[in-house]
Design a protein that fits this description.
With 169 residues, the protein is mainly alpha-helical. The protein is built from eight helices and no strands.
Amino acid sequence: MSFLEERAGAFQGRPDEDALMRALEVIEASRGAWHAELRAYGEMRLRAKRAGRRRPAAGEENPHYLTRWHGDERRAALHAVMFESRRKLAPLVVPGDPVAEQLKSCVDACLESAGALGVEEREALAECMRELEKRLTPAQWAEHRGEYFRASGLLRLARQVEVASAVTE
């Protein structure tokens, strides 16, 4: 809701009809982009099934699982990074975890530059993501569930930083 209010103005609390209408426009635009992606995915899956590939490939993005705001991904991701860093980052960064500390540096750089990251910061972010993905194992889930969830939260934040810092042409 905070991203929607950032885009449309305050519409919670005392009703502001203009802000509500702007919020509706933002939602409709996002929904339109998402539905276009669903149609393209459906067509791609139909072709794949006809070619004998009954299941999506591992890691293939599926728009039925919402992982981002459609239509304004970078701006929404930057908002998510700001929101998450204020509310959830501190408990995820524990002393002695250099990956978490490096990710915090990437988050800070992302927020300070409105999303722009330099080459070294992008490489550090990519390394953080690789290391965090390694932590998400069935053994980690079974034996150290708290650490699994901490790594998952850090990785989710890292992915938002990646989208927020995407280079646009």
